Amino acid sequence: MSTTAKAKAEAQEIIRTLNSGGFYCECPCGCGQEINIKDADLFYLDDFTPRGGVAYRQMLDSLKEQRFELKEKEKNIKARIQNTTRAVNIGFISERLAPALSSFPFAHQDCRSLFDPIDYVIFEGLHSRSKISRVIFTEIKTGAARLNNHQKEIKQLVEKGKVEFQIH
Predict the structure, then answer these.
(1) 32: left (phi over 0), alpha (psi -120 to 50) or beta
(2) What does the pLDDT average to over 141-147?
(3) Is the pLDDT of residue 21 over 80?
């Protein structure tokens, strides 16, 4: 008898012994309940009981499905990243071009770019009247973009009148 056949025979004998007696063990899921070992469908290597074979094939099918779902999620994540990157780049370009567009509500000559944390400071009237009537902080947003935390803070400070002019 070969070593492999001997090991298999020994394992089968141990399994028969455990299945025939009143042996109990703690449930492997960690629930603390005792289960009768004969109900555990013990097996050696790939020599499954009929019920164990069904469970094994179901597990393989489940793993195959999970692998497929993971690949699909990975594809979706990559596509989402590409779309987000594209949108950010378009927004970045739009911010720079906005004052040149006819729909921009201010004269482009009145705009001074900062881009971070606010896109523009507009000195309304600077070019056309040589007299500034207002100073406006302007942030350009496209699509569903929202103000970041620093931009929100600046907006709140302006709304509260906490803007100063200093000479040093």
Answers:
(1) left
(2) 83
(3) no
Helix intervals (H) in the chain:
3-20, 50-97, 149-159
pLDDT tier at 153, thresholds 50, 70, 90: very high
Q: What residue type is 63 in one-letter code? A: L
Virtual torsion, Cα 152, 158, 161, 167, nearest 10 deg: 120
Return d(Cα 142, Cα 145) in angstroms, integer: 6
Query: Tell me, what's the pLDDT at 130?
Result: 85
Q: How far apart are CA 165 and CA 32, in angstroms?
A: 71
How many C-beta atoms surround the C-beta of residue 77 within 10 A?
10
Mean pLDDT confidence for 77-81: 94
- Measured CA to CA, the distance from residue 93 to residue 87 in angstroms comes to 10
| Distance from C-alpha of 155 to C-alpha of 117, rounded to nearest angstrom | 11
Q: What is the pTM of this model?
A: 0.53
- In one-letter notation, the amino acid at residue 118 is I
User: Which two tokens mark 124?
Assistant: 């309304």
